[in-house]
Amino acid sequence: MKPQKKQIIIAPDAPAAIGPYSVAVRTGQLVFTAGQIGLDPATGQMVSGGVEAETRQALLNLKHVLEAAGSSLENVVKTTVFLRDMQDFARMNAVYAEFFTENYPARSAVQVAALPKGAAVEIEAIALVPTPYGD
């Protein structure tokens, strides 16, 4: 069996990492993303509009990261949602449901003491990378 190598993913349409980490790592048919927050990739600033706007931007960023890795939101098998305040769960969940409409991934949602850049929400994912038949 050939050992798997890890491939560092660079996603030009998503915000760059804001620390010593990669936005995603692919190995074989799996991609593991770093958490995405509501940063506007064009400005590097948090979007305004509360947890709904931040969730939407975080999921758009996640979409771009997954696409750069050869995957998509449709191939996500697991997400973890970090919320600054669990009282925001229903509003985050309404936006989340716009992006994941069927064959839902497994998900955990936890409240945390703080998130980078004062974010209200951060979302990370594990996804499959489809390969052509026979690979």
Molecular structure report:
By secondary structure, this protein is an alpha+beta fold. It has a single domain (6-128), classed as 60s Ribosomal Protein L30, Chain: A (2-Layer Sandwich). 22% of the residues lie in helices and 25% in strands. It has helices at residues 50-68, 89-99, and strands at 6-9, 24-27, 30-33, 76-83, 106-111, 121-128. Strands 1-2-3-6-4-5 form a six-stranded mixed beta sheet, with helices on one face. Helix 1 (50-68) packs parallel to helix 2. The protein is globular and about 50 Å long.
Q: Which characteristics define this entry?
A:
135 residues; alpha+beta; 60s Ribosomal Protein L30, Chain: A; 6-stranded mixed sheet
Secondary-structure-based class equals alpha+beta
Integer tally of domains:
1
- Determine the number of helices (DSSP H or I, runs of at least 4 residues): 2
Biggest sheet strand line-up = 1-2-3-6-4-5
Work out the strand percent.
25-35%
Low confidence ranges: none
CATH superfamily: RutC-like
Shape: globular
How much helical structure, as a percent, in the residues? Answer: 10-25%
